[in-house]
Every structure is written in structure tokens, then in C-alpha cells.
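pasting for ref
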Amino acid sequence: MDHTTRITTALLLAAGTGSRLKPITDNMPKCLTKVDEIEILGRLITCLRENSFKRLVVVVGYFDHEIRNFLDKNSGDIIVEYVVNADFATTNNIYSLWLARATIKEPFLLIESDLVFEAPLLEKMLIPDTIAVSQILPWMNGTTITTDHFATDRVASINLGANINANGNTYKTVNIYGFSLETWKRIYKHLDIWIEAGRINDYYEALFSEMVGNGSLHLQCVYFDMDRWYEIDTTDDLHNCEMLLQQSRYNLAG
């Protein structure tokens, strides 16, 4: 496994409808939601540029023209390419990830389009194979990881829908991953099998969980401070994130 190649490509999954953020997303994609007057996507571009990224691949679907227009004006010197998920309304993020298999042929950072975080947090994500995790706060829900008792930075399991009030070696996933090319090749072979089986509505975390469980995926934890990032799913999340930005002693990207 090559851990020496610095990641300079990012894959952003931005095809979804952001239905939980309606009515804000009635006429635009979630990634263009403004958080404290700055678009989520604009904050991400700032993070990528500050970490010397060269290429951004975006899987688009819902209001894709809005994303294209925004990036045409704001991507700077980052090369932007697009993968279209025409079935965005009837598929989940595993399908968007699978669609990118022919476009991504190098180590890359996988990131969701609803995250706000401080740019320096990415620094340790630029050497594969890594997963961003955080201590658990009350607002957090969804997928967690459990670390290995003998190697506390190594992921022992990815837990879907598990009780989030778990023991001290359980952490929340941030939905940012750094993959080597070797690991990506293994992932998209598994993706082919799942998609062929019709599992287009699964989350890719389910596939990652299976791969960690059978020993075909190995990830090291990168710990994000719990008050230096936020995931925007609902209007409550949006308001809480803005409060965090205003109150925190940190200056989140943007």
C-alpha cells in the first residue's frame, strides 16, 4: 500500500436533492446553501486550494447547472471535471461513487457536499488510506467507527445505525476519506458487484463496512476536533453551524 503519494485530487458527491434542507433546496443544490454568508461549496474550494489540490471531480445531478456556474467563477486554478448522475432522484451515494470509477485513476479525497470544516484539518488526510473521525457530540447521528484495541488509530469496524452512545473507542465519521489507488481499485471492484446486484440505493458506508469486516479495506483515523466541523442536513443544522462559526475561537474555512 502506497502511503507516500500526496493526494491532490478530490471527488465531491453533489448529486442529491438535499430534501431534508427544504425549502432552501427547492431551487438549488445543497452545496450552494450559504452558511454565514458563504456557500458550502465555496468553503470547500478554499480548503482545497489551501491544501494545494490540483483537480476536483464533482458528481452532479440535481440543479447541476448551478454547480457548474458557481465553479466556473470560483474554482480558481483547480481543474474541475464533472460526472453526471442522471438517476440522482432514485439512487444513493453508492451509485454516484460507482459512476466516478472511470474518471478517478489516482489517489483521491472522497468528500460529501454538505460539510463545513477548517482547512488545516485536511492536512493529515492527504496521505492515504485515511478516514476523518470525531468525538461524538449530541447533534451527531449516523455512521460511527470503532478503533482497534491494539492499534487505536486503526479502524476495526464501521457501524451503520449503531447506538451512538458507545464506548470510548467509538467515533463519528465525518464523511471524508483519503484513498490510495490500490485501495480504490479494490473498492470499485466491490462497487461493481453491488451495483450489478441492484444495490443502487445503499450508502457507500455499507460497502466500506463490509470491506473493513472482511479485511479488504484498511483505514487509519484522522481526528477532527469536534467543534471545528459541521454537517449540514437540516435547517436546524444550518442554524447550529452558524452559531458555531460565530462562537468558536477557530475560523472555519472561508
